[in-house]
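To whoever picks this up:

The nightly regression suite flagged DUF2243 domain-containing protein as changed. Nothing in the input moved, so I suspect the structure step. Input below, exactly as stored in the fixture:
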Amino acid sequence: MKARAPDAARRTPPGRNLLAGVLLGLGTVAFIDEVVFHQLLHWHHFYDRSTSGIGLVSDGLFHAFSWFATVASLLMVATLRRERAFSIAAFAAGWLTGAGFFQLYDGLVQHKLLNLHQIRYGVDLTPYDLTWNALAAVLLLAGIAWWALLWLHYRTEHQTR
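Regenerated output under the current build:
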């Protein structure tokens, strides 16, 4: 027997679920970046074009961003669940989209365009950049594809009624 979403989840456009997922995707990848690359490996700070103290302050602001995005997402999920309108599929599509978007934005805009920091210093960046941006593109495209399928399914289901 196929499990069905609660009636409210089937009637609710996937927008709020997607947004909650996007926020958690942004928060998750930003948190992993902060903990792994900034704190554990010490490869870079969010802003490396100044003193170490400024770098640490920029890391703190970056960490606050990831935390606020995560909390906002979880508050949205709580509201959606209370309304019986939570859709794990739409949420997951949003998570992939948010995670991929953040990582691609970080790799292209922050690393290359604005030159705020690089993934690592003193090494050939090519394999790091290719891996970072390829993974980001896969996450982003998977999220967008899933998102599009959900919207098509929602529209098809509601046009036939």
